[in-house]
Fold each of these.
Amino acid sequence: MTRANANPAMRRYMRRFIPITFAYLAAIALATAVLPDDAPADALTISLALLPGLAILAWLWAMARLLIELDDEYLRMLEVRKFLVATGITLAITSVWGILELYTPEVPRMAVFYVFPMWCIGLAVGQVVNRFGFGDPGPC
Amino acid sequence: MKNRLKVLRAERDWTQGDLADALAISRQSINAIETGKYDPSLPLAFRIADLFALPIEVIFLRE
């Protein structure tokens, strides 16, 4: 267990992450192809719209399992730092934008859909922060 | 926190990878501890002390 990517927890995480990513992309493609913009809020529409949400829940589960199963405390610390950076960035952007929306109606509304992709971009920023802070981007 | 890990490892002619394998942790962890970027938890510090058969305060020193 001398390399981060040789860590069994990381291998398990990647085995979970890749199919979930494909499921998410397929669900988004399906919902986009089948549902018109003015689709009624019937059972079919809601079911198809919830499919990508299930994939996101699965992603969150996979990330939680990674933190639980990662037995190398240094790698786990790097991963937690990434999550904190991502959470901080997401909270900062959405909170400030939300206040802008509240007091200035001309500001375009931010779709809640963007919160999770924003958090994922924050993970990449967290990796850069780790690289500068520890010279080590982390296990993934 | 300062530590003598690198010296102790060199005395035994161990690589970072050897030490990482012996402790069942990543080589990155060893590097981060040796360079002072990361202070290990108390359980890991005790495992390191046990491996070198030394008291913990001989390996990890106050600033």
Note: The radius of gyration of chain A is 18 Å.
Amino acid sequence: MLYEGQDLLKLSYKEMRAIRGNEIAMIFQEPMTSLNPVFTIGMQIIETLRTHNPEMTKQEAFDRAVLRLSQVKIPDAEKRMKDYPHQFSGGMRQRVMIAMALCCNPKLLIADEPTTALDVTTQAQILNLMLELRERREGGSIILITHDLAVVAETCQRVIVMYGGKIQEVGNVDQIFYEPRHPYTQGLLESLPSTQEAKKRLHTIPGNVPFIMDLPTGCKFCTRCDQVMDRCHNEEPPLHQLKSGQLVRCHLAEEDSTGFADAPAMTNVTPP
Amino acid sequence: MSKPLLEIKNLKIGYPVWGGILRHKIGEVKAVDDVSFTLHEGETLGLVGESGCGKSTLAKAVINILKATVPGVRQEGEILFHTEKGPVNLLELSRREMQPRRSEIQMIFQDPFSSLNPRMTVGSMIEAPLRLHTAQTKKERTDRVHWLLERVGLQASQASRYPHEFSGGQRQRIGIARALAVNPRLIVADEPVSALDVSVQAQVVNLLQDLQDEFNLTYLFVAHDLSVVNHISDRIAVMYLGNLIELGEANTVYGQPAHPYSRALISAVPSPDPRKDHSDRVLLEGEIPTPLDKPTGCAFRTRCPIVKDECAASTPPLEQKKSGQVAACPYT
């Protein structure tokens, strides 16, 4: 797993600790359980700052923390430094998490279902905030993990679709939504209510996601695929690379394949 | 328009707030504040709103479990349920009088993991309402349980299994089978698909629609996912901080929302179309006030993009709009 050329899996605890929070930061799905309930949020942000910038004084760290909180639009930021997580609403807690994650100017932000636990109007505010912050941080990247395809369509440039522990399709957002090549991606898009005529039966993917211990041999999706062939049960498809740059782990893509891709980093998929 | 099944008239529900050294009632949260609407036989009414709007409280009031679960709750107004013998106000019924009504009004819950008893087999959970409400023999009940399991897409042989052996979607189907067991006329579905993956949501939504057609069911469908609500509902009702602020045909409310809050809510819904233009999205300022701190006059005035001085004076009533729905705002 290469970050800026370094294999993260081979780093020592100390080396990884220097990167975690500082260069690679994460925001989690449930802000209530990922913020420490017994410390004020001020203390939690300051802790992150001073761990990675040991030369920073307490006052400098305090000021920087207040700045970050106001950047995520927390009103009365200075006063609220003394508040505990339970004194914030869900949307506010998520903003605090974002402030904490961004306080060390990470190059990579991983956001795991950042808005799933939030109301729709709050979600719109948080996504808008994340996009604004991305624009201001030149060179900062975000990996957004979500099951909500609509959120992906609105915020992402490139999309990786996973199933059964494997990458099944990669493409830029237009390709994934307008020309999906993997039957699983196609099935997901077709089963969304907003793409269908209201009140008609929704298209479904039959069956259930198999238990992790019970994944099929061959293609992981073969037990639910409406375009399955005999070969799929025995032979797991490689990740084919198409001329458009899309990657598809499906035998049906074989005829358009221009080669195999081991990892998304080796593709020519460019954002639109 | 078919016959009314449930009429909610000026419903007010207050949750007590306890405090002080002796834990007496020091205040009240107006969870539902003067709400009225009618549910017709065979229709699906989608009830939407965000945190603190009162939709779950309203759902629980309809199945009449608040007195038993919230000590000190205050319920005013009427919930008229139309039986063969005429309309009956559920809020005035004693526990014994309510019992036979319970076979007519059933509920499907949000969390497929906590709404099933982990220590009971699936079969016995579905059988329980039959034992309570019917005089069927054991054989008749067993046959019915098997029939129900198959009807919701599971297998009769799974009746002896425990909930933890099923996936979320399957557990939701079990909940549906249980609700269907005694042939209810009204099913209150409280966020029945929110906890499910997209592909499983579609299966359960289809099932609910099929069952509605087959058994002439009426649904009160409480949800926050507007695209699912728009798909399944005939009409949509929007709530904010305890008030009903918009009600109309689903297409109209979703496509041409009249109330400023509905407009913000519907424009906030992300759409799975990367080419869609969102520049006209209404982004609200601030957070939803807590129901403890409900603004006087129009509850939405603290965040409304078109607020005027008059909005603080009194709560606006629902007005008929040209596009067909009613909405509680005189300025749109």
Note: Chain B has a mean pLDDT of 91.
